[in-house]
Amino acid sequence: MNQWLTVENLSKRFGGIHALDSFSCHFGQGEVVGLIGPNGAGKTTFFNVLGGMLPADGGSIRFCSKQLVGQSPHRIAHFGVARTFQNLRLIRQVPVIENVMLAFRHQSGEHLVPLAIRWKKVRAQESENHEKALAILKKVGLLEKADDLADALSYGQQKLLTLACCIASDADLLLLDEPLAGVSPVMIDIVLEKLRELKNAGKTLVVIEHNLEVIMNEFDRVIFMDSGRKVCEGLPDEVRNDPRVIEAYLK
Length: 251
Fold this sequence. Notes:
The protein has 251 residues and is α/β, with parallel strands linked by helices. The protein is globular and about 55 Å long.
């Protein structure tokens, strides 16, 4: 398997607490890997370190031969890594479609020189991105909400919008932090359908999740964490039946 992402001996401390303690794992292209464990296991800290929002205290993260440790969040996103957050992180007072358009990478309008000199090209790209954003919103079922403020969406719709932003980024690696938490059963089916489409497109998905049914039916592999360490990993059924998992989490 092509290991797009390899994590070796990753460490992160907060005072005397080891949020990540020599944590190692790997992820292959087109895999959907579940990251599970009790509260405080280190799952979100792992995402924050991987995405550059927290500095690592030790270890290595290599993605497509690039070293991510020490890189800025902007640079890591440029390499093709995108993520969602438990608190969504949307720009709530701008329209839905603008949230999606801001997620596109390599926009000419981000730089002053192209904006000033090649304004026609910038305008043409903005028009193209607007059409792409509409197509993405249609794909996730939010087309009719395109001009609404993000804050006006229901919680489930906001979750779909964060997923739409990940799709717009065209990232190869998606880090999804509890994408189904607090979402209605109907909305869960929609989100899962989009995750399957991303997998089929060759994207690698790392998903923090607590829904046992989803874990068993949707994930290729599962990594169980506790106290910043990897306790075990394997096929969903193998992990579910591991005595250490049963004792710590699933009993």
